[in-house]
Structures are given as structure tokens and as C-alpha cells.
Amino acid sequence: MVLLFERGAFDASSTAAVAWALLFYAPGLVGHAVVEIAARAFYALRDTMTPVLVGSGAMVVNIVLSLFLMPRFGSPSDLSRGAHGALALANTVATTLEMVMLLWLLHHRLRALLTPGLVRSVVRLGGATAVMGGVLLAGSHLTTVQSWPAPAQGIIGVLLGAGLYAGAAWLFRAEELHMAYRLFVDRRLRTPGPGG
Length: 196
Fold this sequence. Notes:
This protein is mainly α. It has helices at 2-5, 12-25, 29-44, 49-69, 84-110, 116-140, 143-146, 150-171, 175-190. It has nine helices and no strands. It is flat.
């Protein structure tokens, strides 16, 4: 975030505030992505009411959790560890519950959603993500890394993260990695040369 945003009025305290919220928002990204797909699956089944009802329930949970957690996160004026983190956490929990409920209902509707292949895929890719995140988190606390300029930390972190994820996915035999490779190779083979 230092590399991307920290300039002008966006100073170190602003970076700390965004990092605090991002810490609690990030785990909810999976929920937000899956909810978008699951809701469209219900629309394809001509059922618009179920996603609306589940989404309304998730909104109520979000509000209740926000009111419950905010006093426990400290002062709203403390941007580095303040109550805005509670709002992010409440959103993540509510969205995750919405995702679980939609998937559960969709599974009972279709009877073939949570197949063994899908579960294996989620476990393998989740494991690759955990490996990548763990190594990057451990490396970010090294004194030598912290002394590097922000651009170097950002570029090396992105390249290292991509390499770690791809390597772990390969070790876990994630089928999606092989599919992506085959798609890339097939596209290169179909691409005509300069004179083609």
C-alpha cells in the first residue's frame, strides 16, 4: 500500500488505517466472489427470491455484528486499530454466512454441486494459498526485507508470491494449474506467426 497510495495527503497513518481494515476485509473476498456466482445460479433456475431473502438476512447479521463489535475494537478515532476494523470484520462474517447458505441451498436444489472433485480442488488451491501467504507473511517481518525500498518490496513480493503459489499448486497437483498451462500452450499454437 505504501507503493501504491502513500503520497500527498495519504500519509503513513492513512496506510495503517487501510491496512487495519484490509486485514479483516481480505478473508471475505472469497465470500463476495462466490455469492455473485451462486446468486446467478439461482437466477438461472428462475428463482430470484432465495438470493434476496438470504442477502437480506446477511445484511441484518452485518448490522447486528457491527453494533456488537464496534465498542470492542476501540475508539473510532484510532485509525490504526480502531472500530472501522469491526465494520470490515462484520462484513466478512456476514458475507461468508451468506455464501455458505446459498451454496447449501443450491446443493440441495441441484443435488450435485459439492462433488468430490470440487472439494479436492478447493482444498488443493486453499493449501497453495496458505503456503504463499505464510511464506510472504514470515518474510515480511525480516529486518533485511523491511529495510528495502517500497518499490523493491512490492515487485519482489508479487513475483515471489506468484512463484510460491504456482509451485505449491503444482506440488498439490491442482488440476487448474495444468488446465491453465494447456490453454496457454493451445493459444500459442493457434496464434499465427508474423507471416501467417
